[in-house]
Amino acid sequence: MSYMPIKLTAEQKRLKKDIDEIAVSSGFNYNDLQDLSRGWRTFRLSRVKDLFIRSSIIADYILIDETLNSLIQLYYFSGNNASNYVERTKKFKIFRNNILDELYILNKLEIVKKSYRIPKYVSSYIHSLNTIRNALTHSFFPDRLEKKKPVYGKESIFLMSCFRRYTKDHHKTVDCLDRLIKYKSNGRWKKYWTKL
User: Fold this and answer.
1) Owning domain of residue 142
2) Residue 166: how many CB atoms within 10 A of its CB?
3) How many Cα atoms are found within 13 Å in the side-chain-facing hemisphere of 83?
4) Is 152 helix (H, G, I), strand (E, B) or coil?
5) 109 in Cβ contact with 126 (< 8 Å)
């Protein structure tokens, strides 16, 4: 299969150059292995895999955290549909900055569970995500931890079979929460629950 070269815009070229520089300076560059010995190539590739998985987990955590924030905001400000107008009010800013931003993700999950009916797999996934994220952000060698290892189910998150299962469950959870936000903001509860 042959690929035709694509023509990048000036902005796309700048972004690609930035990404290449970030990859080299942060250790994400896995294409430049020529000057490394066999052992160092394995080390570099393992490090890049580790960094990709860590980055993915942290980004997933932030997305879930923001999604829970949206659900909580909709619950408390649904009369105004949490619109741009509401987001500019002092009441909303205090709520967002002094209450929501101070809560941990599991505290937010408990509020959402008390405010909405959510499937058990969503709650289970968020608990696992929190444990994995804590292990990955608080230890350079998380597999060496005695407690709270970065496992999903009973496997290390660094195994590709486990990471694939984790990613599938992440998308399923995000889809569920996104549907809930969509139907809550439109006031169509019955349609949401029939699609679970």
Assistant:
1) 49-194
2) 24
3) 5
4) strand
5) yes
- Asked whether residue 82 carries a pLDDT value surpassing 60, the answer given is no
Q: Is residue 16 part of a domain?
A: no
Task: Identify whether 15 is part of a domain.
Answer: no
Place of tokens 């597999």: 143
Distance CA 163, CA 57 (A): 10
Look up residue 80 and give its DSSP letter: G
Record the pTM: 0.81
Could you tell me if 120 and 126 are in contact, meaning their C-beta atoms sit under 8 angstroms apart?
no
Give the CA distances from residue 11 to residues 5, 16, 29, 36, in Å, rounded to whole numbers and listed in that order.
17, 9, 22, 33
In order of 30, 122, 132, 135, 136, the CA distances from 141 in angstroms are 21, 28, 13, 9, 8
Per the domain annotation, does 19 fall within a domain? no
* pLDDT tens profile 17-59: 998 888 888 877 777 787 788 888 888 888 889 889 999 999 9
Q: Considering the domain boundaries, does residue 26 fall inside one?
A: no
Number of domains composing the chain: 1
Q: Which long-range contacts does 188-195 make (Cβ < 8 Å, 24+ apart)?
A: 193/117
